[in-house]
Design brief:
about 350 residues, alpha/beta, 7-stranded mixed sheet, 6-stranded parallel sheet, 11 helices, globular, binds zinc ion
Amino acid sequence: MNDMALAATLFGAEDLRMVEAPLGPLAPGMVRVRFGAGGICGSDMHYFRHGRTGDFVVETPLILGHEIAGEVVEIVGPASGLQVGDRVAVNPSRWCGHCARCREGRPNLCENIYFMGSASKKPHMQGGFATYFDAIPAQCIKVPADTPLVAAALAEPLAVCLHAVHRAGPVEGRRGIVFGAGPIGLLTFMAARLAGMSEIAIVDIAAAPLAFAQRLGADHVIDLSRGEQELRDLAAERNFDVAFEVSGTAAGLSSAIFTVRRGGTVVQIGNLPGGQIPVPANAVMAREIDLKGSFRFGHEFEEAVHLIVDKKIDVMSLVTAERPLSSAQEGFALALDRSRSVKVMLIAP
Ligand SMILES: [Zn+2]
Ligand SMILES: [Zn+2]
């Protein structure tokens, strides 16, 4: 086996370098995974452009990547059900399992969480855009030979969206509107549809992602770059029960609060700018809006893997390009161009 790893490492805004480093011996209780595929996420792009996402700031070099899949190449210690050679979707979260939040079944809120490719803690937690990376066995969910690793890597963003739909409460037969037609918006649309949401609108400010949303079967698509009137008219007519705010903008959150019906629910999924942002908070009171945060995911990760393996959700339909991990910079540049890209995947170099 190779004793070096090549990793896409962020040193600061717009400073992503491929760094080669020797692989240390695998620690007991760990599994070593050879990179197969990794999705470039909106938060990776925020880190790349600004050296931060929301309140998480890159202060020391950070290997990006948390949407990853690969092949198990080494195991040290017990790893029930896992073997060298297994193809796995890798859950980037390691939960402690014993804190109060873990015990109440909300492991994404774990007080001791380790989340790959994140600057939320110091030292930063290194990610999976590396030819080899290590995980604990519980992070590795096996996929069959006929599931492409590119699809398996998309279990992570799908899990984010399944969690957001769970946070909305029962959605069957209800009407929803999604603010943001990027990969998370589109996967939220697919997850909400699968959960039985009857009618779903998608809103964005760019034409290309909206055209994509239309091809995927959105009931209404609205281009906010042409003004807000169309959105106001549709909201008055359709009485949306739930709004999913995926754009991560103050304007999106504000629109979502005014777009859902009185007594409706707004789920905040997008990573908003850090610090204080203006929000029409009085409307939350006067219209009795349930404003809920949705952060990463808990046990939805396994559910996402199963939905992909069983082809219940066609995540591959979002993939617009694949680039080798060794050309990560080019992959990021392409992902940042929303006129050309929905989901850009890095694949084995
Ligand atoms: Zn992500
Ligand atoms: Zn915990």
